[in-house]
Each structure stands twice: as C-alpha cells, then as structure tokens.
Amino acid sequence: MADAYIVALTMISRRELSEAQVRTRLARKQFTDDEIEAAVERLRQDGTLNDRRVALAAARLESAIRHRGRSRVIQKLRSIGIDGDVAESAVDEVFEEVDEGALLDRAFERRLRGRAPRDLDEKARARIIRGLAGQGFAIDAILKRLKSTPDK
C-alpha cells in the first residue's frame, strides 16, 4: 500500500488543499487515522501544508477572479475546511487590497445589462438584490448602490 505522505504530497502538487481537504481525501483512500495524522503532521512541519496560505490564495481567487463579496469569500473558505479565525484574517488581508465598492459596481453593472435602474420592475430589482447578496455583498451596500445609480 502507498505511503499516506506520498499520496498527500501528490494531491497537494496538483493544487493547494487545506488540511481538512487532505484529511478527507486520505480517509477516502482508506488510510488509517494514525497514517493520516502522521502524514498531515509531516506536511505541516515541512511547510507543504499551510491553511493560511490556502486561505489567502482562495480568498484572492474568489474576490478578484470570481468577483465575490466578503461574506461569500468567508463562506467558501469555511467550506474548504479553513478555521474561522484564519478565514476572517485572510479575508481581511485580501480585502485591504480590493476595492469592495468597485467590485460591487462591476457586479451591479453586469446584472443591469445596460438597463437603467428606473426601468426595472420590483421583481427585477428583487432578483438583482438577491443575486448580489448571494455573491456575498452586504444588503445595505447593495441598496445604497441601487439608490445612487444614475438613470441612463
């Protein structure tokens, strides 16, 4: 049978994984708890496995590439097994570099598709608000942006 450390190293060489993801994948490959613990500890010690680095990379991807808001990025980090404090810290660091207002503006413009906000009926407004909230933007920021949008 293969060594859990080598299998985990192979997984991580393909893409950054959190400690929780490595543990889950090794368990799926039917390694024992002791083998998984030894492999994870060794990976942590040699710096190969670092949840903070994974959190920063995932937060940058979600905010810059996928145009997600703060709460959605935190949700994503938690879904990949990043500890709450590490997730919050990584998101705070990434969002220092990101203009959340500009991010919301781009998302808002994409959802408007060239229409003026005054041309939207209540259903369309609600759909835009729900969509932007689902992307992780704060409701108050969305409503403020909706009200401040000049009519075209």
Radius of gyration: 20 Å
Number of helices: 9
Overall shape: it is elongated
Q: Could you state the order of secondary-structure elements as H and E? A: HHHHHHHHH
Beta fraction: under 5%
Mean pLDDT: 91
Structural class: mainly alpha
Domain module tally: 3
Q: Low-confidence segments, ≥5 residues, pLDDT <50?
A: none
Largest sheet: none
How many beta-strand runs? 0
Provide keyphrases for this structure.
152 residues; mainly alpha; 3 domains
Characterize the structure shown:
This protein is an all-alpha fold and 152 residues long. It folds into 3 domains: 4-45, no CATH class; 51-97; 100-148. Helices cover 72% and strands 0% of the residues. The protein has 9 helices and no strands. It has helices at residues 4-14, 19-28, 33-45, 51-65, 70-79, 84-97, 100-112, 122-134, 139-148. Helix 2 (19-28) packs antiparallel against helix 3 (33-45). The mean pLDDT is 91.
Kindly summarize this structure in a few lines.
Helices cover 72% and strands 0% of the residues.
How do the strands and helices of this protein lay out in sequence?
Blueprint: H1 4-14, H2 19-28, H3 33-45, H4 51-65, H5 70-79, H6 84-97, H7 100-112, H8 122-134, H9 139-148
Helix pairs in contact: 1-3, 2-3, 4-5, 4-6, 5-6, 7-9
